[in-house]
Specification:
The complex is a heterodimer of chains A (150) and B (465).
Chain A (H helix, E strand, L loop, with lengths): L3 E5 L1 E4 L3 E7 L4 E2 H4 L1 H6 L23 E4 L2 E2 L4 H10 L6 E4 L5 H13 L5 E4 L3 H6 L5 E4 L4 E5 L1
Parallel strand pairs in A: 3-5, 4-6, 5-7, 7-8
Antiparallel strand pairs in A: 1-10, 2-8, 3-9, 9-10
Helix pairs in contact in A: 3-4
Chain B lengths: L41 H7 L5 H16 L5 E3 L5 E2 L9 H12 L9 E2 L13 H10 L3 H11 L31 H9 L12 H8 L1 E3 L11 E7 L7 H12 L4 E4 L2 H4 L7 H14 L6 E2 L4 H6 L4 E10 L1 H9 L15 E3 L6 H17 L9 E4 L2 H10 L1 H9 L3 E3 L3 H4 L11 E2 L2 H6 L3 E2 L2 H10 L7
Parallel strand pairs in B: 2-3, 5-6, 5-8, 6-7, 9-10, 9-12, 10-11, 12-13
Antiparallel strand pairs in B: 1-4
Helix pairs in contact in B: 2-7, 3-5, 6-10, 8-10, 8-12, 13-14, 13-15, 13-18, 14-15
Classes of the chains: A alpha/beta (150), B alpha/beta (465).
Chain lengths: 150, 465
């Protein structure tokens, strides 16, 4: 029977979802990840950030993306809304650290203005990223509990 | 790699497109921390309850949710005037255009007239040529729509596109203590540090919501606690260091933390027209190689003058920067050109936009370099970037320098060099720059001033480059 590890974070944008993990151990650069969406209007959730060896080339649509926090240009908010509108967004964003202000802007704007929620949990702690691996099944609960099925 | 100390590597190397800026996040928060609920005034509560319409209700609910994520316990009234980063009209900003149009159609405006970042293109002064221009025009095909909506929302005029909105010629200069909701990293950095205003590093969208409401949540760099410095930067160089190199070194080290910088008072003196360009460029470099939203300069910037080393946090760390350290940083910059030894195609000077004094300095520098070589025109197309207001003021104040600049073949352009070089058909140009910000976000190569003059005069890379 597969092991289940449980982590408790803060439900920034609560929800119950289940999906496959995509894990980045470096900051998730929203702009670099979705640069083709930004410039060319491409409808693809494939990560274009070739500096991110964990995620480059991987399709993040409908996945549970696990990161320390996000980095990149202040246009991050725009990208979160755009990927939601194009239905290429992850199901959930899970942050080991406190959510940063740029990601918070984008995720809140998408949630409040186009009614597209990317379930968001932060403060899961560094051990979360040491445990979760790409391909793990993740269950996110509305109270901020995250189950990693290894 | 750069370690933020926040539980993992969040940065990247010294030069990669669109990297290394975080926003703001408290480093010591725990999931058990009580989620604060904001205390609203009666007026704010009425908006929150929808008594002023659905649009404003949605706006304040978003802004309150944003603040509560960062444990803000109240909103504050904004002062000064807004400045916003969104200046490019591509399909990617479609969601924002829809929201902004709703506000404009409802007759809503920002609490005061606002300025915005420079546009990506200035075909009048920096024409990429007909083939590229056609592609670029298609990419930025929502530019006119963005301007039209912005003007209805309260943008001051169609000429108010510049990242250096705070110089007197632009006139969007907040006072010390003014609360702002700005969203351009270099302008945020200058307003917080040199002017003593208070703004967080906001993203697009939330800036407009706050500026329509005239209110922002109080947290982070807007608070006394958030303006304390966990880093002491001890500058021990033989002369005034190059602002871009110093800022780059600091940003790479402290990431998003506030640095308290010492050792520059004797070199810089005080904030004035001559030093503001240096301060702007140093700060912008801290915000492009790192995510610095505020720095203190001992004896120079307003908070540091008033509070001195009381601004240092308990247990602060120290980073000593000498000439060897700056050389190490400079030598670490990669060459991303497809042909590393190609002749430079263009010279880009001024990102963020130049001040009047910087235009004078570069005009004189270029003229001197050409005369010393017995030449009369630049050998490599040379562009200096500034707002329309700064360009006009430069031409009025220094007509002889302005004339020599034109006679020598250099051009003042009004757009954003970084965005120009981030645009697909232009991103492979092999251009050189004096800006760390342009270097970080594009494939442009950074050179020190004397090497740029060599390139401008000869059209060739400096020996060994």
């Amino acid at each position: 029977m597969a092991e289940i590890r449980t982590f408790k974070g803060r439900p920034a944008l609560p929800g119950d979802v289940q999906g496959s993990a995509e894990v980045s151990h470096i900051g998730f650069n929203t702009c670099a990840t979705y640069v083709d969406v930004m410039i060319s209007g491409t409808k693809s959730g494939v990560c274009q950030d070739h500096d991110n060896k964990d995620l480059f080339g991987r399709d993040l649509a409908d996945k549970v993306v696990c990161v320390p926090q996000t980095i990149g240009s202040s246009s991050a908010a725009c990208l979160f809304m755009t990927i939601c509108e194009k239905d290429i967004a992850p199901k959930a964003m899970l942050f080991a650290n406190h959510i940063d202000s740029l990601a918070a802007c984008g995720l809140l704007m998408a949630d409040n203005w186009i009614d597209k929620r990317i379930v968001t949990v932060d403060l899961l702690g560094p051990d979360f990223l040491n445990t979760v691996m790409t391909g793990n099944t993740i269950r996110v609960h509305a109270d901020g509990t995250v189950e990693v099925h290894g | 790699m750069v370690n933020s100390g926040l539980g993992g590597h969040i940065g990247t190397d010294a030069n990669f497109t669109l990297t290394t800026q975080t926003g703001y996040s408290p480093p010591d928060a725990k999931p058990t921390t009580d989620q604060s609920k904001m205390q609203l005034t009666a007026e704010e509560q009425a908006i929150y309850d929808g008594k002023h319409g659905e649009l404003l209700q949605k706006a304040i609910r978003t802004v309150v949710a944003y603040g509560e994520l960062f444990s803000a316990n109240r909103l504050v009234d904004l002062g000064g005037a807004p400045h916003m980063a969104m200046s490019w009209g591509t399909d990617a900003v479609e969601p924002f255009l829809k929201i902004y149009k709703q506000f404009a159609d409802a007759g809503l405006k920002t609490y005061k007239p606002f300025t915005a970042d420079p546009k990506p293109m200035d075909n009048e002064h920096l024409d990429p040529g007909p083939k590229k221009r056609a592609i670029v025009d298609k990419i930025y095909d929502r530019e006119d729509e963005l301007q039209e909506i912005n003007l209805r929302l309260g943008m001051r005029s169609k000429d108010d596109w510049s990242c250096v909105c705070y110089v007197k010629e632009m006139g969007n200069t907040p006072k010390r203590g003014d609360y702002l909701a700005w969203s351009e990293s270099s302008a945020i950095n200058y307003a917080n540090s040199v002017l003593g205003a208070r703004t967080n590093r906001n993203s697009m969208g939330i800036d407009m919501l706050c500026n329509i409401l005239g209110k922002a949540p109080l947290f982070g760099l807007m608070t006394d606690e958030g303006r304390k410095a966990p880093w002491l930067i001890d500058v021990k160089t033989a002369k005034l260091p190059h602002p871009e190199l110093l800022g780059s070194a600091i940003g790479l080290k402290v990431m998003e933390a506030v640095p308290f910088i010492t050792g520059l008072k004797d070199f810089l003196g005080e904030v004035n027209d001559r030093t503001s360009g240096w301060l702007k460029d140093m700060g912008a470099a801290t915000a492009s190689n790192g995510a610095v939203g505020l720095y203190h300069l001992e004896g120079i910037t307003p908070d540091a003058i008033e509070y001195g080393r009381k601004l240092l946090s308990d247990g602060y760390q120290t980073y000593v920067i000498d000439d060897a350290e700056l050389k190490r940083v400079y030598d670490s910059y990669p060459n991303l050109w497809k042909d590393p030894h190609h002749k430079p195609e263009r010279v880009f000077i001024g990102c963020p936009h130049n001040t009047v004094e910087q235009l004078r300095e570069w005009g004189e520098r270029i003229d001197k370099g050409l005369k010393a070589s017995g030449k009369t025109t630049v050998a490599c197309p040379t562009y200096l970037f500034a707002s329309k207001y700064v360009r006009d003021a430069f031409q009025l104040k220094y007509p002889n320098v302005a004339k020599s600049l034109t006679d020598n073949g250099a051009v003042i352009a009004l757009n954003c060099p970084m965005m120009y070089l981030s645009t697909p058909v232009e991103m492979d140009e092999m251009d050189v720059t004096n800006s760390n910000k342009t270097r970080v976000y594009t494939k442009g190569r950074f050179f020190l001033d004397e090497d740029l003059v060599h390139i401008i005069v000869t059209g060739e890379l400096p020996p060994g480059a």
